Amino acid sequence: MIDPEQFRHSIGLSDIAIERVVFEEGNVLKIYVTSTKKGCHCHCCGAWIEDFFALGEEISLRH
Fold first, then answer.
1. 7-58 pLDDT, tens digit each
2. What is the pLDDT of residue 48?
3. Helix/strand/coil for 5
4. Which of 5, 8, 50, 51 has the fewest Cβ atoms nearer than 10 Å?
5. Are 16 and 36 in contact, with CB atoms under 8 Å apart?
6. What CA–CA distances, in Å, run from 5 to 2, 12, 29, 36, 52?
7. 24, 31, 25: which is closest to 63 by C-alpha?
8. Which of 30, 28, 48, 27 is nearest to 18 (CA)?
9. Cα 2 to the center of its chain, rounded Å
10. How far is residue 19 from each of residues 3, 15, 16, 49, 50, measured CA to CA in Å?
């Protein structure tokens, strides 16, 4: 079994925490992650923000 830290670096993603990994039928691998960043830039004005209203909707990315 691969160490989560090694896996995170091997797929080239930083600032994430791996929550869980699920193997499904048809050779489907789902990796659930959350951001570890303490803030982001506002998509409207570009200002750095650290307060948030809510978490975004879960999305699926195909790679």
1. 777 777 778 888 888 888 988 888 888 888 888 888 899 999 988 777 778 8
2. 94
3. helix
4. 51
5. yes
6. 8, 11, 17, 13, 27
7. 31
8. 30
9. 18
10. 13, 13, 9, 24, 22
* pTM score above 0.90: no
CB 29 within 8 A of CB 23: yes
Handedness of CA 47, 60, 7, 11 (dihedral sign): negative
**Structure-token pair, residue 29:** 């691998």
